[in-house]
Structures are given as C-alpha cells and as structure tokens.
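Deliverable D5.2: sample structural annotation.
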Amino acid sequence: MIKQISSLELYFLLKEFEILKDSRVDKVHHPQKNVLVFSFYKTNLGKKILQIDIGKALFLIEEKENYEETLGFGMLLRKHIGGYFLYCIEQIKPERILKLSFKSKDNKKILYIEFFGKGNAVLCDENNSIINSLEHHDFKSRAIRPKLNYIYPIMKYNFFELSKEGLSDLLKNSKKESLVACLAVELGLGGLYSEEICLLSCIGKNQAPKHIDERGIELILSSIKQTLNKKISAQVIFKDDRLIDVAPFELRFYDKYAKKNFQSFYQALEFFYSQFKEVKESEFERKLRILERIIEEQKLAIEELKKEEKELRENGELIYHKYNLIKEILEELNKAGKKYSWKEIKERLKGHKIIKEVNDKDRKVLIEVG
C-alpha cells in the first residue's frame, strides 16, 4: 500500500509552502480523479506549480504537463477561485487536512483537502458552507454535501499542543494494548513516528500504556516536542535497493537503511511518489506476516493474563482474610432485606464505612475491605 502523508509530515511540509502565500491562481487543472494542479504566480517569485494527490500528498513540481482534459471539479475551481489570491495555507491540527484560503476584492473561498481515507477536496464559501466537493459522503458524525457546513473530524488529543496532564490522561484511558498503537492511533502520530517516539524515549513499544509511570510520561512528551522542533533534512529511504519511505528529517528507526538526501521535503516527496513501485508480497510472505502478528498478539495476551491472574489471586487472598467480616455483612443485609425495601436499605447505608455503594435495581452492594 502506497504511503499517505501523516499529520506530522504535513506540518513540516507547510513550512516550505509559506512562499506560496499571496500568490495568484493563474490556472487550475484536474487531469485525473484524485489529482489537482494549481499554477500560481507571485511577484519576485514567478510561477510555482502545486500538485495535490488527494489522499496521498502534495508537492511543488518544476514543469507543468500538457493536460489534455480538466475534469468537472477542476472546472468548478476555475470558476470560483481563478484569479483569486492564496492568502493563507495551513493545517487543521492535528488532522491530515489542508486548508487553502483564497480571496478576491469582494469574495473569499476556502478549499479543504483531506489526506485520510480515500481523501477528498471540499470547496466552501467564507462561511464554511459547502459549494461542492470531489466526493459526496454521509458519515455518522458528518456529511459532505453542497449547502451543508463543512465539519471535520476532531481528535480528543492534539500532539501539537499536548501537556503532561493530557498525555497522562490518554495513556491512563487508552484502549490499546501497546504504547506504539496508542500513540499511532489515539494520538494520531501514525505508525512510523510512534515507533520513533518509543526509540527516542527508550520505552518499549509493546509496553501497556496504562503501566507507563510519571518518568516515562515525561520522556515521551519530551520526545514528541523534540521531534516537532527538528529542522528539515529530507530523505528517502531504501531497503535492498528498493524505495520504501520518505521523511522530513533523519529517523533513528531507519538508522541501518540506505538513504538519499534532498534539499527540501517537497522534492523528496515528489521523488518518492514518482519512483515508488508497490511490491506485492508472495503467499509465503503474507502467511509469515500473519503468523508473526498472531505470535505478537499472543505474547501480549499472555502478559495481560498474567497480570489478571495476579490481581485475582490478590483479591482472593484478601477475601479469604476478611471472610468473617464479609459473611457478617451479608447476613445483616439479608436480615434488613426482610424488613426494608432495597431503596430504604440504600438510604440507610449512606456514609457507611465499608459499604460504599448499593445498587437497589440489581440488589448488589460494593464493599471496601482492603
């Protein structure tokens, strides 16, 4: 599967695209369904051509091809933003969404480019009302259709503005079994940069998020901030002479791999997407990969079962030592149940030192004997 640009990579890429601000839209081309090409002109800069591969990446290209055809959405863009000036180019953080803001003397338009899933391009007016989009969609939490307001998905945690308390809350409430999965999915760093954060912070990637201590949280947060402050030193990465990845800076994860350096990240991206060839894995490789994943999952499951066994054993020992007290409480509750309703019992037991909660609906009590 070909690489999709990550949120972190989009952040670094847009640092190089500041030069496009205040450029005029000379031409818009839509030669293929998921490819948009903008020809910009700016005084003292000249012509710059921006190619957007929707759902994948974007980069500046040196020369424009002779596009024989411009598809419908491209014609719509020509009508609405042709001759407009690009006054703002930004990322909707921490999402993989590019926001291009255009203006003329009297109007403003916004073009959103989504790089997640299959990708999409959404043209809106200045009030964020959708004029039209490349694809129309109806999701559970939002819909992409003309005349509706454009709504984008919002992640609970933003790694660009993450605090120690926020990271602690994420790890504590994570539904993932490993730290690397938690950072990749729930924090939105993606697989590669989650692996890198684990390496930088010297914390095992398969460690359970809930078991990361305060020092570990500090190391992870420091590694994230360190990564965000890196200077661009773009590289494409090779394995066995085969192009496999592209990154805005050197990664410890790829220490042992061959690399080719580029002056800019967008040049590295253009090289990668023009040269990358997807290699289909053999049936043996597919089966091996599945077996390796199953083994890894089983290892994690065994660790969780060991922890659960320890907790259950400790609880069992506690119940054994407090058996007489628990028995006495149960007998008293049974006696009370013959005289009072469970709602009355619940009211009478408010503030009890041992009985902490009474569920009158299910006739259950929570006691604290530890």
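Annotation notes: The chain has a mean pLDDT of 88. The chain has ten helices and 16 strands.
The annotation will be released with the project's public dataset once the embargo ends.
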